[in-house]
Design goal:
The protein has 446 residues and is of the alpha+beta class. It has four domains: 91 residues, Rossmann fold, CATH 3.40.50.20; 66 residues, ATP-grasp fold, A domain (Dna Ligase, domain 1, 2-Layer Sandwich), CATH 3.30.1490; 130 residues, D-amino Acid Aminotransferase, Chain A, domain 1; 103 residues, Phosphoribosylglycinamide synthetase, C-terminal domain (Glycinamide Ribonucleotide Synthetase, Chain A, domain 4, Alpha-Beta Complex), CATH 3.90.600. Helices cover 26% and strands 25% of the residues. The N and C termini lie far apart (46 Å). The mean pLDDT is 93. The structure holds adenosine monophosphate and glycine (GLY). Glycine binds next to loops.
Length: 446
């Protein structure tokens, strides 16, 4: 990693930031940006029911797909930096359009966002760059897929090619389940993703989320985080966007992180450059730490959520300026990122029916206020016409807490969660089981 120590700062002043998105990730970013000394205003488009509570953030009610309105609003508000949170607007080229309109944007253009929006494109890039990833076959119909299965004679992971909101991947336990998943994906169960399907060898090992902030040339790696993708305790149930996270995870060692920098992140950035892509945004590497070293399971082109919520409170107030420097292509001039000591824990509260069909419109009661070491980041919430805070999506909010050790961080987060209530509310009780002592695991309390 390149050190940014002792480099004279000469970036333009960062006063006004606009974040695009409506999730917990965007609220966590807004909260973190508000800590920067020079930042006067943070706008969020369209934000959610908790955005305004973040120390006076401004919500601008424009839908994410209305590019013209977003551009106009950012220009009229003299926004210095636009940060695009979710993958869908990145994949559809929002960053390109805003840059063309004269704005400074953190987030890759549509071509770079293919790291996430096309698994085939990402696998091909990894193959040519020599980045360690599972062997794969790209197929375009059932017959081709079955021919691959016949040849390899073992279960393979089945991945829909395009964005599928976290639902396009099946990790099978038998040849039968592989065949079943192939059938489903080509029948169109995962939206528009049925034209190309990736079959991939099954890898084993702990998973970890790594975030590299890139300015097109250079990178800074944030502390590693761990997500909990499955809906239920014990890593059971369907995959979700993520039910909780913690950072920094000790699952990956400093030596392995260096290996990730050298064998995965640097070669990936170089391969992007070779393809003429000036990648200014996050490379999120979803890794599996296999017995042969770290392998890429998937790339994403944005911060992970909820990992971002766990991470932001650990980062010093320089993070806003560092992200601005990335967007300007001038990471070398950014201040050095300071890190809090200790640990951060994030527990997500979802509503019944999530992830398939979450209920909506229930009133929320939040008795606990934020403290120095505990944040409440909203996601699927909104303010109704009568001014009430109601649920509006599957992952409703998160409680995030920091302490010197994980046991205490999770205990603060779970205590905070007990003071939140809405119909249908549920959350995993075992988030961070990897780093908590058994005796402190939270018992069922609802
Ligand atoms: P993805 O959407 O590619 O992150 O996949 C979702 C989840 O499926 C990952 O978090 C892994 O738990 C699992 N997965 C994906 N690819 C593989 C693989 N090749 N081997 C084992 N598990 C995988
Ligand atoms: N937490 C996983 C993701 O954001 O894709």
């Amino acid at each position: 990693m390149k050190s940014t120590n002792n480099i004279k700062k000469s970036l333009p002043a960062l006063k006004k930031i606009c974040i695009i998105g409506n999730g917990g990730r965007e609220n966590a970013l807004a909260w973190a940006f508000k800590k920067a000394k020079t930042v006067e205003e943070v706008f969020v488009i369209p934000g959610n029911g908790g955005t305004k509570e973040i120390n006076g953030c401004e919500v601008i009610d424009i839908i994410e797909t209305n590019v013209e309105k977003i551009l106009k609003s950012c220009l009229s508000n003299a926004i210095d930096l636009v940060v695009i949170g979710p993958e869908a607007p990145l994949a559809s080229g929002l960053a390109d359009k805003l840059r063309k309109g004269g704005l400074t944007v953190f987030g890759p253009g549509a071509t770079g966002a293919q790291l996430e929006s096309s698994k085939e494109w990402a696998k091909e890039l990894m193959r040519t760059a020599g980045v360690p990833t599972a062997n794969y076959w790209s197929v375009t119909n059932i017959q081709e897929a079955l021919a691959v299965l016949k040849k390899v004679k073992k279960p393979l992971v089945v991945k829909a090619n395009g964005l599928a909101a976290g639902k396009g991947v099946t990790v099978p336990d038998s040849l039968e389940t592989t065949k079943d998943a192939i059938q489903k994906v080509f029948e169109g169960h995962f939206g528009n993703s049925r034209d190309t399907v990736i079959l991939e060898e099954i890898l084993e090992g702990p998973e970890v989320s790594i975030f590299a902030l890139c300015d097109g040339e250079e990178i800074i790696i944030l502390p590693p985080a761990q997500d909990h993708k499955r809906l239920k305790d014990g890593d059971k149930g369907p995959n979700t966007g993520g039910m909780g996270a913690y950072a920094p995870t000790p699952v990956i060692t400093a030596n392995q992180l260096k290996e990730v920098n050298d064998t995965i992140l640097r070669p990936t950035l170089k391969a992007l450059k070779t393809r003429g892509i000036n990648y200014r945004g996050v490379i999120y590497a979803g890794l599996m730490l296999t017995s042969s070293g770290p392998y890429v399971i998937e790339f994403n082109c944005r911060f992970g959520d909820p990992e971002c919520q766990a991470l932001m409170p650990l980062l010093g107030p320089e993070i806003a300026e560092i992200i601005y420097a990335c967007a300007l292509g001038r990471l070398g001039e950014a201040p050095k990122l300071s890190l809090q000591t200790g640990c951060s824990a994030c527990v997500v509260a979802a509503t019944s029916g999530y992830p398939e069909n979450p209920r909506k419109g229930d009133h929320l009661r939040i008795k606990r206020k934020e403290t120095e070491v505990m944040q409440i980041f909203h996601a699927g919430t909104k303010i109704d016409l009568q001014g009430n805070l109601i649920t509006s999506g599957g992952r409703v909010l998160s409680v995030v807490a920091q302490a010197e050790d994980f046991d205490n961080a999770f205990s603060i987060a779970y205590e905070g969660m007990k003071e939140i209530d809405f119909k249908g509310m549920f959350y995993r009780k075992d988030i961070g089981y990897q780093v908590r002592k058994q005796s402190t695991q939270i018992k069922e309390n609802k």
